[in-house]
Specification:
The protein has 354 residues and is α+β, with helices and mostly antiparallel strands. The protein is 37% helix and 16% strand. The strands form 3 sheets. Strands 2-3-4-11-5-6-7 form a 7-stranded mixed sheet. A 3-stranded antiparallel sheet has the order 9-8-10, with no helix packed on it. A two-stranded antiparallel sheet has the order 1-12. Helix 1 (6-19) runs antiparallel to helix 2 (24-39).
Length: 354
């Protein structure tokens, strides 16, 4: 498995996108997004997906495709017209922040948007502006079964929330309401590894451990809601409500056989903290919260208690130094994409060699 410096990987993916016709802004936003996902330890949303965005680089700047279809001082609904999802989502959160400066809460909905990648990328934009950022998505492919059912009915419907703190990176929760994101099944397939019981079931409710079945047997397999057989009603219930909010408010449409505008709707919220409490006081409260949680007695074998987002920060620190491990199958897909675009593949350099 090649291990690649993030510097080398960023330039490699950026060059592929530029060769495919992407603008400087689009190529940078998307290449940074996928590499930063790998750095954070979310390989399911990293460069394993990079070739999938090549087609979206054509046709001019992604931002130029964004069409406002409804607007008020606090809210905007945008038809992305198939624009690169990572560009559209970043612009949407930036707009939500601008609205929250004058309206306390800013909200932006996106429909007909390309795949926006890792939802955890966007709430920290609000946190960096001294706000709370929240993202809801009714997308990712309808592959989760309802609690008590076995048929694919809902997407993983992720939620991501970020809040600023006085010391360190913002707290960041980024989670799906299925037990696992679909991309993690693709990573297991690329690594030729089995999946644990409790991730996926067949039409009779039996566990499946072969990740290949996720794509090859869509009619009789489904990913379980968060909580599994015993507590899956919690993940399922939250998934339904996120579908109702993200699908409904964005105009994309809620999950059904043929959603109104294809589903995969995103809603971004930015909440201006200063309109509730002085930002410095709020950030101090978050430090009290973090210290209190971390002061808990630990189970045997547990060296540290992590707060939301801290695991990703540790992964980032480690991979910045040690490099990003890339599955051989993923690396070969990148090399093939590069060669098709006339881009010379780089050597798989470690950080100290870059």
């Amino acid at each position: 498995m090649p291990t690649v410096s993030h510097v080398v990987l960023r330039k490699f993916v950026y060059d592929i996108y530029r060769a495919a016709g992407g603008t400087e802004e689009d190529a940078k936003i998307v290449s940074d997004h996928v590499v930063d996902s790998n750095l954070a330890g979310h390989d399911s949303h990293g460069v394993i997906n990079a070739p999938n965005y090549i087609g979206g680089m054509k046709g001019g700047p992604a931002a130029a495709k964004l069409e406002i279809v409804r607007e008020s001082p606090a809210a905007t609904v945008i038809n992305a017209n198939g624009a690169l999802g990572m560009v559209a989502a970043r612009k949407a959160m930036e707009l939500a922040v601008e609205k929250a400066k004058t309206c306390t809460i800013g909200a932006v909905g996106l429909h007909r948007c390309g795949h926006a990648g890792r939802m955890g990328e966007y709430p920290p934009i609000a946190a960096a502006a001294g706000m709370i950022g929240i993202v809801l998505l009714n997308g990712g492919g309808r592959f989760m079964h309802p609690h008590g059912g076995t048929s694919r009915r809902l997407p993983p419907n992720p939620i991501a929330i970020s809040v600023p703190r006085e010391n360190g990176a913002p707290l960041l929760l980024d989670m799906t309401l299925s037990v696992v994101a679909g991309g993690k099944l693709l990573v297991q397939t690329a690594r030729d590894e089995q999946i644990p019981e409790g991730w996926m079931i067949d039409a009779a409710g039996n566990p499946i451990t072969d990740p290949v079945a996720f794509r090859e047997r869509p009619a009789d397999t489904a990913v379980m809601p968060l909580g599994g057989f015993q507590f899956g009603y919690k993940g399922f219930g939250l998934g339904v409500m996120i579908d109702a909010i993200a699908g409904g408010l964005s105009w994309a449409g809620c999950s059904r056989e043929n959603p109104t505008r294809g589903a995969s709707g995103i809603v971004m919220f930015a909440i201006n903290i200063d309109n509730f409490i002085d930002l410095s006081d709020y950030e101090q409260e978050i430090e009290h919260l973090v210290a209190w949680v971390k002061s808990s007695a630990r189970l045997p074998g547990v060296d540290e208690i992590y707060v939301p987002g801290e695991f990703e920060e540790r992964s980032r620190e480690r991979r910045l130094k040690e490099g990003i491990p890339i599955e051989e199958a993923t690396w070969q897909r990148l090399v093939t994409a590069a060669e098709q675009g006339g881009v010379a593949p780089p050597p798989t350099l470690l950080p100290e060699e870059a």
